[in-house]
């Protein structure tokens, strides 16, 4: 079985897995990193949203062989470390607005929100409702109103 | 039990000077540290039987009396709910309910913190394993958790606090009234202090005794009624909250099932068993009743193997059914109207509501470890006792050999009333002889999982001279399965209750939940069911969303015929003062009647259930530019609800933040039911296979302006909240759509007639995952 190596939440790791196994299952079933959730494995629900080299992606739809040794994968568990704090400002905002209900989608929502804010910042602007309309992450509990409030608040406390 | 009731009612036992404080009873239980138990039956917080609904739970005493009381007699504390205080100063309560996002763990933590005067951080709420001795008191449904447990949990906490004070007074040799309790610390004269934890052992008793205590007066509340964040919020935002799939149970490897091409199809044979067993990562393959179970090192390899399954399938239970055939059967079964359209003007209308999926975001998941003489199950279960009984029977084990753990659920919406996935996990584990972690795939959840069935609502109103003379509603539905415990338990424990088979039980539920809030003369609302073999179940708010939507649309029609404004018309005909109050408030806050551009409109809906009252006002934009708006992402658009005002009278509000959250959720469900989300049945199976087919409300369809107004308390008792907001919001969206477009919508959701996606193939039953994820980063 091939060995794959990549940087996961700040640590270089190696894992044995068949090439085609999607990264989500490598993370969850082989490495025990369960923050990214399984909601569809069809790249639709976005519950597994994580970051690759700082950009949002869905590990349910990436074969592990496509991740190279220099790639940095960040899951919700590693998000605070990216800002060197106990919690990322987006997580703080999620607490402030008490966004979650069941919580199943929320790790993915937070990871998507951080990437979306960074994306619009790179375009030289601040996040708008139109940008938030582009978030595909499903919340079946219907927390969208608080998500909008929290993303805007979290963005204010995120560095450039 | 009757004895307890008498003593409760006895006024001589009320201490003078404590008006407004309620005396309650419980037990100090023999345990190593202080433990207090309270019976559900003694301190019934919700004794009025009026709208007993699913909640015949409001009157469990009858069931207990009729049931087997031997266990209770033998062990008087066996059916109690118990709060324990530990030496570290933490209080523990294993709630016999399921947390699925509705916020009951937070509410119970607040209740314990309040009556115990303990910081909420020191209150730990867990979910109790299946406790058969609780009978029907371990069922999470009917928005009943707070209504049924508010007083019992307060009682247990109040007795705990009182016992600590007594023990401190005894140890210090001072009078009880010289000891105060606050923030987990007892304080006496001359600087005497002790933490609760320090007294937890001394306060324990060696023999269980019955004691009385007094609840706090509402005016003294410091925690209850104040906004509080979820107790699990930190675990959620850090990814640490564990759902069934996140649990590590030794040897329980990922398992999925390849399924037949139609609902409830059966497995006749596996044609390539050896090849499947040889696939990479696969450890076991067995045939089960409804598919081929595959256990592997990763769920991904289960999905890979599903692609390769070559099986022969037997027919399902509804292979010849499609939307049109079901609708035809429903129409044939509609009960006749009683009042002929004579001497009055009549409006007749029929509304159709498509099949809808109650699947939460978390796919159904269960861990099962079945051994020769025992079994252990982990899953999100709202009725764990029935799961335990059924699974024991299925496995051929005694009930007490099956341990059932209730795991927090990633949503429920009715799905977890049933234990289908746990039963299937048990079947697989038994056949493989190994522990399994079974997850249904997303496609399984939509296509083989339970649905809220298709229904029609026919309404006829007769009106004359400014009055409504009759209101008749005939709701006809594909049979809804209530076999998740209530039916069985009532039958098992109370054979002489007027319940005979599912049909009359469903009718009972309907009659106990549906009431017209209007003075419309002769009013009848009846249910008839068609017994088709779909996998059905309740969905958030059961019948109410459809029934209330139909009724409120007719109310708007009536208002128009009588030349009245919809809000003014409702004011004239509403019976209930609480509904009138929320209606007026919604109209005021939402600026009802303001000028709106053509193609946009306001709509309003009111509803009373679970002893609460709600009015929802929405604004909708049905202009072509909005309906056909281009999205930068792929997705269904249609009309957009742009604003919503929800006014709720919750009786007594325990946690405004939690209540507001439930109102938000109900609104988004309602938008989906009215505009976008349904299952299309074709040749015995839903076409929907992913969240891009089943259009639950997404960010781009959610309103930007949502306001929740919580009315001042109108009661000392909390009402139900979890399902409360769906029906009035559904009605409001439908009414707004009708007013904006000038067309009465008659088929819901309004986009059901257009299939907005390319269906996934029905075989393989779970599609392969994409591989191009890195092309979609942002």
Description of the molecule:
Chain B: It comes from Kribbella karoonensis. Chain B: Residues 238-317 form the Aldehyde oxidase/xanthine dehydrogenase a/b hammerhead domain. Chain B: Residues 759-778 are annotated as: Disordered. Helix content of chain A is 31%, strand content 13%. By secondary structure, chain A is α+β, with helices and mostly antiparallel strands. A five-stranded mixed β-sheet of chain A has the order 2-1-5-3-4, covered by helices on one side. Chain A is globular. Chain B has 778 residues and is α+β, with helices and mostly antiparallel strands. In chain B, helix 4 runs parallel beside helix 5 and helix 20 crosses helix 21. The longest helix of chain B is centred in the N-terminal third of the chain and has 28 residues, at 145-172. The model of chain B is unreliable at 1-18, 43-76 and 492-501 (pLDDT under 50). At the A-B interface, helix 1, strand 4, helix 2, helix 3 and helix 5 of A face helix 7, helix 9 and helix 20 of B.
SSE layout and pairings?
The complex is a heterodimer of chains A (160) and B (778).
Chain A (H helix, E strand, L loop, with lengths): L2 E6 L2 E6 L6 H8 L19 E3 L2 E3 L14 E3 L14 H8 L9 H17 L6 H4 L11 H13 L4
Parallel strand pairs in A: 1-5
Antiparallel strand pairs in A: 1-2, 3-4, 3-5
Helix pairs in contact in A: 2-5, 3-5
Chain B lengths: L1 H8 L13 E6 L6 E4 L21 H7 L3 H5 L6 E5 L5 E5 L8 H13 L6 E5 L17 H28 L7 E3 L2 E3 L5 E3 H4 L9 E6 L18 H5 L15 E6 L7 E5 L2 H5 L4 E7 L2 E6 L2 H10 L2 E4 L8 H11 L11 E9 L2 E2 L7 E6 L4 E5 L4 H12 L6 E5 L13 H13 L3 E4 L2 H6 L3 E2 L2 E10 L2 E12 L7 H8 L7 H13 L8 E9 L13 H18 L4 H8 L3 H13 L10 E10 L2 E10 L2 H4 L12 E10 L6 H21 L4 E2 L2 E2 L18 E6 L15 H16 L5 E2 L30
Parallel strand pairs in B: 4-5, 10-20, 15-31, 18-19, 23-24, 27-30
Antiparallel strand pairs in B: 1-2, 1-9, 2-3, 3-4, 6-7, 7-8, 10-13, 11-14, 12-13, 15-22, 16-21, 17-18, 17-20, 22-23, 25-26, 26-27, 28-29
């Amino acid at each position: 079985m091939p060995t794959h190596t990549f940087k996961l939440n700040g640590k270089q790791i190696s894992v044995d897995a068949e090439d085609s196994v999607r990264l989500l299952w490598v993370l969850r079933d082989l490495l025990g990193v369960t923050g990214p959730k399984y909601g569809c494995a069809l790249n639709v629900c976005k519950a597994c949203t994580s970051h690759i080299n700082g950009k949002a992606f869905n590990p349910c739809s990436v074969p592990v062989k496509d991740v190279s040794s220099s790639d940095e994968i960040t899951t919700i568990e590693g998000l605070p470390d990216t800002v060197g704090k106990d919690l990322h400002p987006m997580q703080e905002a999620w607490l402030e607005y008490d966004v979650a209900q069941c919580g199943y989608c929320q790790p993915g929502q937070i990871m998507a929100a951080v990437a979306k804010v960074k994306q619009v910042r790179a375009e030289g602007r601040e996040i708008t409702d139109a940008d938030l309309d582009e978030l595909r992450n499903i919340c079946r509990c219907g927390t969208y109103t608080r998500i909008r409030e929290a993303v805007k608040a979290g963005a204010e406390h995120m560095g450039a | 039990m009757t004895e307890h009731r008498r003593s409760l009612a006895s006024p001589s036992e009320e201490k003078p000077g404590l008006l407004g404080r309620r005396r309650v009873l419980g037990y100090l239980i023999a345990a190593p540290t202080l433990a207090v138990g309270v019976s559900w039956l003694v301190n019934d917080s919700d004794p009025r039987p009026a709208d007993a609904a699913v909640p015949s739970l409001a009157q469990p005493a009858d069931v207990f009396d009729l049931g087997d009381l031997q266990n209770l007699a033998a062990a008087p504390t066996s059916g109690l709910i118990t709060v324990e205080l530990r030496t570290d100063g933490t209080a523990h309560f294993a709630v016999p309910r399921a947390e699925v996002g509705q916020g009951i763990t937070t509410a119970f933590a607040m209740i314990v913190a309040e009556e115990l005067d303990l910081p909420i951080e020191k209150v730990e709420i867990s979910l109790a394993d299946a406790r058969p001795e609780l009978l029907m008191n371990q069922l999470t449904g009917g928005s009943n958790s707070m209504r049924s447990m508010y007083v019992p949990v307060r009682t247990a906490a109040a007795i705990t606090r009182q016992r600590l004070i007594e023990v401190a007074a005894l140890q210090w040799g001072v009078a009880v009234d010289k000891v105060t309790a606050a923030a987990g610390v007892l304080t006496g004269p001359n600087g005497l202090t002790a933490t609760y934890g320090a007294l937890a052992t001394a306060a324990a008793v060696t023999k269980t005794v019955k004691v009385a205590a007094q609840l706090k007066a509402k005016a003294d509340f410091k925690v209850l009624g104040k906004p509080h964040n979820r107790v699990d919020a930190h675990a959620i935002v850090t990814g640490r909250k564990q759902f069934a799939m996140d649990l590590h149970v030794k040897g329980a490897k990922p398992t999925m099932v390849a399924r037949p091409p139609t609902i409830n199809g059966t497995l006749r044979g596996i044609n390539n068993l050896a090849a499947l067993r040889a696939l990479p990562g696969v450890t076991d393959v067995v045939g089960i009743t409804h598919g081929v179970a595959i256990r592997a090192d990763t769920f991904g390899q289960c999905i890979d193997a599903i692609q390769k399954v070559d099986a022969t399938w037997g027919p399902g239970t509804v292979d010849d059914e499609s939307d049109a055939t079901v609708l035809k059967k429903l129409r044939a079964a509609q009960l006749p109207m009683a009042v002929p359209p004579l001497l009055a003007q009549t409006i007749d209308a029929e509304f159709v509501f498509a099949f809808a999926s109650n699947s939460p975001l978390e796919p159904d998941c269960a861990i099962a470890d079945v051994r020769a003489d025992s079994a252990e199950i982990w899953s999100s279960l709202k009725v764990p006792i029935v799961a335990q009984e059924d699974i024991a029977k299925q496995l051929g084990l005694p009930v007490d050999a099956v341990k059932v753990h209730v795991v927090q659920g990633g949503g429920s919406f009715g799905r977890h009333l049933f234990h289908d996935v746990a039963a299937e996990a048990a079947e697989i584990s038994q056949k493989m002889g190994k522990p399994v972690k079974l997850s249904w795939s997303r496609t399984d959840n939509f296509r083989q999982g339970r649905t809220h069935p298709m229904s029609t609502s026919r309404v006829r109103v007769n009106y004359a001279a400014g009055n409504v003379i009759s209101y008749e509603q005939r709701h006809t539905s594909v049979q809804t399965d209530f076999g998740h415990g209530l039916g069985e338990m009532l039958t098992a424990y109370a054979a002489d209750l007027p319940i005979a088979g599912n049909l009359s039980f469903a009718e009972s539920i309907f009659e106990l939940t549906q009431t017209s809030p209007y003075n419309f003369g002769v009013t009848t609302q009846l249910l008839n069911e068609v017994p088709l073999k779909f996998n059905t179940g309740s969905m958030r708010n059961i019948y109410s969303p459809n029934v209330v939507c139909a009724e409120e649309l007719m109310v708007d029609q009536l208002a128009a015929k009588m030349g009245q404004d919809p809000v003014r018309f409702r004011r004239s005909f509403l019976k209930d003062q609480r509904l009138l109050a929320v209606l007026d408030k919604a109209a005021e806050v939402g600026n009802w009647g303001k000028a709106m551009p053509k193609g946009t409109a306001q709509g309003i809906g009111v509803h009373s259930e679970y002893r609460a009252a709600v009015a929802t006002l929405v604004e909708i934009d049905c202009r072509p530019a909005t309906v056909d708006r281009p999205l930068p992402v792929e997705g269904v658009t249609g009309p957009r609800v742009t604003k919503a005002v929800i006014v709720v009278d919750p009786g007594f509000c325990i946690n405004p933040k939690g209540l507001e959250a439930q109102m938000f959720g109900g609104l988004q469900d309602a938008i989906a039911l009215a505009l976008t989300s349904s299952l299309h049945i074709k040749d015995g199976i839903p076409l929907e296979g992913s969240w891009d087919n089943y259009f639950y409300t997404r960010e781009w369809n959610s309103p930007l302006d949502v306001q929740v107004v919580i009315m001042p308390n109108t009661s000392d008792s909390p009402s139900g909240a979890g399902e409360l907001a769906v029906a009035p919001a559904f009605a409001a969206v439908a009414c707004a759509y009708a007013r904006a477009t000038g067309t009465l919508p008659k088929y819901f959701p309004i986009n059901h007639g257009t299939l907005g996606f390319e269906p996934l193939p029905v075989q393989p039953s779970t599609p392969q995952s994409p591989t191009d994820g890195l092309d979609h980063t942002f």
